[in-house]
Amino acid sequence: xxxxxxxxxxxxxxxxxxxxxxxxxxxxxxxxxxxxxxxxxxxxxxxxxxxxxxxxxxxxxxxxxxxxxxxxxxxxxxxxxxxxxxxxxxxxxxxxxxxxxxxxxxxxxxxxxxxxxxxxxxxxxxxxxxxxxxxxxxxxxxxxxxxxxxxxxxxxxxxxxxxxxxxxxxxxxxxxxxxxxxxxxxxxxxxxxxxxxxxxxxxxxxxxxxxxxxxxxxxxxxxxxxxxxxxxxxxxxxxxxxxxxxxxxxxxxxxxxxxxxxx
Length: 263
Known about the structure:
This protein is mainly alpha-helical. The protein is built from eight helices and three strands.
């Protein structure tokens, strides 16, 4: 007769088992004494409460992130189209100055400014939601006593610390993926038995490529040749940003599903 049961799903725990065979919860946090037999000495109602309180469902927030970043992809397409269009207009003006009217240039300028403004708006909104999601995912790892390299505080602050932002957010999200791997495929005490979430890796790398391209575009001068180069760089940055957004949506939904299945 089993001496303990999982408090998450009620599955009997085999003697010496490290994980629940039913839901994958670590046995050290998921043991519940059976009626009168083999009660673990360290079990208490307080320890049981930690398995049912303080956990966050991530699915709803992941859906919100998907919507915001999805709309952001539309604005990035608009940003790329308007910048490439203005670049073509400038190139034509430089070759044949009288072939482009002032109204055409003004309309192109307004289109670029509007598209970039909406692009920035949805990028910032998506970033805020992603930071909140990272904090909640890290809090879940705390509640489940699963290994992770950064505290919930760093899950927020790591995005804003110069230089450290190059790797802390990446590790925070990767830990949310690796530490919740099923016991059949990974050991939570190590990060060696399951690889990275490739969608998040792609998203993070392309995000920084896009950011560097935007930075290069913003450092151009005010001459027509500078604006031409800036528009071309900005257009490419917007296209790379689309890849980053789509990959982020895939990664966040994958990890959120894994977290919600553990509750």
